[in-house]
Write a structure and sequence with these properties.
Layout (H helix, E strand, L loop, with lengths): L7 H7 L1 H9 L13 E2 L3 H6 L2 E6 L1 H18 L3 E5 H4 L10 E7 L5 H12 L3 E6 L5 H4 L3 E4 L12 H21 L5 H21 L3 H9 L5 E6 L3 H16 L2 E6 L16 E5 L7 H16 L3 E7 L11 E5 L8 H18 L18
Parallel strand pairs: 2-3, 2-4, 4-5, 5-6, 7-8, 7-9, 9-10, 10-11
Antiparallel strand pairs: 1-6
Helix pairs in contact: 2-8, 2-9, 4-8, 4-11, 9-13, 10-13, 11-13
The structure holds fructose -6-phosphate.
Length: 369
């Protein structure tokens, strides 16, 4: 049932190109229109939406953080992202014009379920992004877009995360479409880029041997830091979460721009720091800033592990280890940049003798608050 892999996690990492392609399949027609699976939210209601709030936990929350960049950029609707466990306890401002997106692989996470119930009580519309057909969260939502990742068995979420991203991009494009915002050349181009992305994920998977080697060489370390900017920041958080739950190492993700506001004090000789570098094309200001961040931490002794686009030569002098990913549009980069971090955490867990599919103290679905 593991299909020749030692662990479900490895199998599920390998299944990501297919999971991504399946989640896109049949959802966008030739004119660029998206269809949701079950919708009790009409296009006219979606045109009225004046705020989007994403609620989720753990890895799904990281997908939500990335969704915010896409939703605000493509639709110009303000978007907040909140941990489901915090959401209802702060008396959030919600009404019939709020669209709440609840992201959950299992569809049974109690924190997320309680958040969406609270949102509906306040009159908000709820759209579920979910991987499990007929589970509680989609049943209790006004609409659902299923992620077609197939069953995810390993406790650590991998393919579900990539498909949550794809689903969120689709929702953002759909909102843009029904509202007529920015609908046009840019969105058409994104749809085309998305349809090619599963091949890029495949290409990343083919080049992971050096990442495994690197992970094994770090097995005796205690701490790994992760830095990113823009959509690379949630990717850094996700890389750190994977390492905590699988390798039981101290790992933290930071927004690279925050370094000088505190975290740079943590940098010491030979500390591994993974940096997710934005594309040098597009938002090149961010790229240049992160290159100087890499220089800064390296000057203080950090061992820099740099994830950068193919052809990005500016990072080469400052990278102790360089992990290449294919060039993608800025907003889509998390689909390729997350994969090496999953492989890294999985290999470190194995090297440290940990149980990869069943990390200690964790359950696949958390059905208590
Ligand atoms: C991390 C992980 C968890 C889940 C979280 C939400 O690898 O698997 O952080 O992402 O418990 O679960 P779902 O998506 O089922 O609501």
């Amino acid at each position: 049932e593991k299909g020749g892999y030692d662990y479900f996690m490895l199998k599920e990492i390998a299944e990501q190109p297919k999971a991504v392609a399946d989640t896109l399949l049949g959802r966008i027609d030739a004119s660029g229109s998206l269809s949701l699976d079950e919708v009790r939210i009409s296009p006219s209601e979606l045109r009225e939406v004046d705020k989007v709030v994403v609620v989720a936990c753990g890895t799904a929350f990281h997908a939500g953080l990335i969704a915010k960049y896409a939703i605000e950029h493509w639709t110009r609707i303000p978007c907040e992202v909140e941990l489901a466990s915090e959401f209802r306890y702060r008396d959030p401002i919600l009404d019939a014009r709020t669209l709440v997106i609840a992201i959950s692989q299992s569809g049974e996470t109690m924190d997320t379920l309680m958040a969406l119930r609270h949102a509906r009580e306040q009159g908000a519309r709820v759209l579920a992004v979910c991987n499990t057909n007929g589970s509680t969260i989609p049943r209790e939502s006004d609409a659902v877009l299923y992620t077609h990742a197939g069953p995810e068995v390993a406790v650590a979420s991998t393919k579900a995360f990539l498909t949550q991203l794809v689903a969120c991009y689709l929702v953002a494009l759909y909102l843009g479409q029904v509202r007529g915002t920015k609908w046009g050349d840019e969105i058409q181009a994104v749809v085309r880029d998305l349809s090619r992305i599963s091949c890029e994920v495949e290409r990343v998977l083919e080049t992971m041997e050096p990442v495994r080697e690197l992970a094994r060489s770090l097995a005796s370390k205690n701490t790994v830091l992760f830095l990113g900017r823009h959509v690379g920041y949630p990717v850094a958080l996700e890389g750190a979460l994977k390492l905590k739950e699988l390798a039981y190492m101290h790992a933290e993700g930071f927004a690279a721009g925050e370094l000088k506001h505190g975290p740079i004090a943590l940098i010491e000789e030979d500390l591994p720091v993974v940096v997710v570098v934005p594309s040098p094309r597009g938002r090149s200001v961010l790229h240049d800033k992160i290159v100087s961040n890499i220089q800064e931490i390296r000057a203080r002794g950090a061992r820099t592990i740099v994830i950068a686009e193919e052809g990005d030569e500016a990072v080469v002098p400052y990278a102790d280890h360089l992990i290449r990913i294919p060039a993608t549009p800025t907003l889509l980069q998390p689909l390729v940049a997350t994969v090496p971090l999953q492989v890294f955490a999985c290999e470190l867990a194995t090297a440290r003798g940990n149980e990869v599919d069943q990390p200690r103290n964790l359950a696949k679905s958390v059905t208590v608050e």
